[in-house]
Amino acid sequence: MSRVGKKPIPIPANTKISYAGRSLTIEGKKGKLSREIHPAVDLSIADGTVTVLLAQELKNSRALQGLTRSLVSNMWIGVSQGFERVLEINGIGYRAELKGNVLVFQLGFSTPKEFELPEGVSAAIEKNTIIKLACIDKEALGRTAAAIRRMKPPEPYKGKGIKYAEERIQKKAGKTGTK
User: Fold this and answer.
1) Distance CA 145, CA 152 (A)
2) Domains contained in the chain, CATH given
3) Averaged confidence pLDDT in the chain
4) pTM of this prediction?
5) If you write DSSP's letter for every residue of 112-131 in order, what string do you get?
6) Which residue among 32, 66, 143, 155 is the one 20 to 30 A from 92 at the CA level?
7) Residue 20: C-alpha distances to residues 25, 26, 125 (Å)
């Protein structure tokens, strides 16, 4: 039984919603997002709230109800406040630079690595080692942050590489040198 899926989503006053033909569009002060809704669930818009209802009684429809509710809620937050993800670069000589829409990384390789930001994702760099990504679409933001982290994931001995700001690296002891 999905408790998350049954909770109604309050509609903020400064946003517009349209739902027609399984397509949901939400427009707010930050931008506009659209998403196709799964056929097993349906949306009910009334009295300033959105409720996710079961359209078909399938095996996984309760899970889809909770998923759809979370996705729609993230759309509201995105168009009204936006999302932000912070990455940190650790290592001597490791740094990042923003050139237009391209991030240029010095990560200990012989040549710099370039990463072109996708449409809708913006970046700001502080102190050459802190990257702040911002976007209204939480899914696109997470995918972009993961792709940047994959360029040089943190290694467990010295912690060098790109990591999320809230991530903790469990360091290994390494060689002890005793016989």
Assistant:
1) 12
2) 3-80 (3.90.930.12), 83-164 (3.90.930.12)
3) 87
4) 0.81
5) -EEEEPPTT-EEEEETTTEE
6) 143
7) 9, 12, 40
